[in-house]
Each structure stands twice: as C-alpha cells, then as structure tokens.
Design goal:
single chain, Metallo-beta-lactamase, Chain A, RibonucZ/Hydroxyglut_hydro, NDM-1-like, Metallo-B-lactamas, MBL fold metallo-hydrolase
C-alpha cells in the first residue's frame, strides 16, 4: 500500500513540508506545496484558477498559522496550472527562472477563457481545449509573473531551513526548476515529473529532461511532490524517465526515414504506455524530439494551441473517452461527442 493516499488537499510530509494534491492529475489538475519554519513560509506554485488557489490558501491557513502571510512564492515553471493563481499571494516575493518569465504569456488566461467559451469558433483545437479545461474558471486572472529571477542554483533560508532552487530547464518547459529541501529529503519537481500519467515535452531537449530525471534519482531524496499525480518516490521518476527514453528511441528511426512528427506518432508502438492517462500527449513530445534531432541553429518556436486538434484526433484513435470523464459524470457536465 502506498504511504500517501492520492486524495485532494493538503498532505503533511513532516518537518514543515506540505504538499497540496489535486487528483486525478490529468489536464489542469496540478500539485503545489508549502515549506514552513517558524513564521517563515515558501510556497511552491499556485493552481489553475482563482477559486482553486483561494481554496488551497484557505486550507493552509486553517491549519498552519504562518501561512496567513506567505513570504515567498516560487514558480517551478510558467504553465498556467502552476501560476494562474499567483495574484492571490499578495505581498510575496515571486521567484522563478528567467525562462519562466520569458515563457509566462504563452497561455494567456483571457485567450483560454475565450476559446473554452466559444470552442467551435476555433475548430477541433478549441473543442479539445474546452474538453480539457472546462472544469476551470479562467475569468478574473491577471498574469502575475516572477519579479525575481535566478540561474543555476539559489539557496534560500526559510526560517532556519535551507531550501535550494535548481534550474533544470528548458526541458518540459522553457524555465523548469526544482525546489529541494535537503535536510528533509523532500523535493518539489513541478512538471519534471508526471506520476501515473503521460508527460508532455513542450520545449525539450528531451534528453535534458532524461538527464534531470537521472539527477533526481541520484539525489538524497525520499519524498517527491510531482507536478501532477500522487506523492511520489524515485521509482516514479525512473518510470517516467524510461517512458521518455522509450519514445525517444522509437522516434529516431522514424525521423531518419523522413516521416513528419504526426505520421510518426501513429507509427510509434506505445507498448506498455498506451493505456496511460493522456497518452495523446506523445504527439507534442514527438514534434519536440524531431526538433531535437534536427539540431537547427535556432530552435523553432511553436504555438501550443494547434496541437490540441492533433491530440484530439490521436486520443480518438486510441479509443479513449473524454478527458475528465469521471469528473464530468460527477458534476453533470455533458461532453461533446467525438
């Protein structure tokens, strides 16, 4: 039996380290964290909308007196499901990598809200974005990026507790960072780790992401808070590293044969990973891998929204039901048919 239950809300990891977990870990259901020592606090990420973030802050403050005043917020990367609640952490220092700052406007919440509200106007991409993101409310969100940046590593004292910020991007995103609490053997990975689901490589290089997984497995760590999914261990990091390596190895000969990334996605045998949640994300990862293999002097910059049409078709080809199907059955929302 797993040490930690995969249940919504705050989990006390011990010694002033906390995780805030959002099942089922699929599109938009992300995790966050809090580190406390005395009156000092450091929060790791916010959630995908203001309502969810406010609920998380209320939960923290009901149990942890120091959480009434969050001193520092660190964003592991720029994706909205880790940053769209930043404006609610008023008065905090907000820290991230320069890559996170540069990447911050890639998903504008006003644009996302417009697409999910008027999905048909945006074709298949809009319909799938609505399917992925309809549980969330993007109204009222003001992009609030980090105001302080770091490169390499940065050590912060939270009371008497040392916390190390480690820049590891670009990998999943342009500006990935790990938040490591060495004395407590706890690490918060952001989307460097998707446990129980399928990762998505928006940027790459994918080999760098594989190398970061190897680095985490070599660290003195016992408890890992993934960006998505349950509280994790090094076994989960190894499993995801193996997925990235498997897809990389399968993609290379298809690139050498001259296929485009989308044709290659339908050729790759996902094997043991076919039944993973969100397996359609392999489409994006293959495009990133093909960019890696091409090794162009200037890496292409690709808009994320068109991928959603391709992922919708690929998900249908896998015979999958709608994203968040169980959630929407519970709340009574009706999905569009494929």
């Amino acid at each position: 039996m797993a040490k930690w239950q995969f249940t919504k809300g705050m989990h006390d990891l011990g010694n002033g380290c906390y995780a805030y977990i959002m099942p089922d870990g699929s599109w938009g259901w992300s995790n966050a964290g809090l580190i406390v020592d005395g009156d000092a606090t450091l929060m790791v990420d916010t959630l995908f909308d203001l309502k969810l973030t406010a609920e998380m802050l209320s939960t923290y403050r009901a149990s942890i007196p120091a959480a009434k005043d969050i001193g520092i917020l660190v964003n592991t990367h720029a994706d909205g499901d880790h940053t769209f609640g930043n404006q609610l952490v008023e008065g905090a220092r907000i820290i991230g990598t320069q890559g996170t700052v540069d990447d911050f406007a890639r998903f504008d919440p006003t644009v996302v809200q417009k697409i999910v509200t008027n999905a048909e106007e945006y074709g298949s991409a809009g319909v799938f974005m609505r399917e992925c993101f309809r549980p969330f409310d993007f109204s009222g969100i003001e992009l609030t990026p980090p105001t302080e940046t770091f490169s390499g590593t940065m050590d912060i004292m939270v009371g008497g507790k040392k916390v190390q910020l480690i820049e590891v991007g670009p990998a999943h995103s342009l500006g990935d960072a790990l938040i490591y609490v060495p004395d407590d053997k706890v690490i918060y990975t952001g989307d460097i780790l998707f446990t129980g689901g399928t990762p998505i490589a928006w940027y790459g290089p994918v080999q760098r992401w594989i190398d970061v997984c190897d680095m985490v497995m070599g660290m003195d760590v016992e408890t890992i808070v993934a960006g998505h999914g349950p509280i994790s261990t090094k076994d989960d990091v190894r499993e995801m590293r193996d997925y990235l390596q498997y897809v990389s190895d399968a993609a290379r000969p298809l690139w050498e044969d001259g296929l485009d990334y989308l044709a290659a996605a339908y050729k790759v045998d996902l094997g043991p990973y076919r039944d993973r949640n969100d397996a359609e994300r392999v489409v994006v990862t293959l495009q990133t891998l093909f960019d890696d293999f091409g090794n162009a002097p200037v890496r292409p910059t690709r808009a994320p929204i068109p991928y959603f049409a391709e992922m919708k078709s690929f998900r249908h080809n896998l015979g999958r039901g709608p994203v968040h199907e169980a959630y929407c059955k519970a709340c009574g929302l009706k999905h569009d048919a494929y």
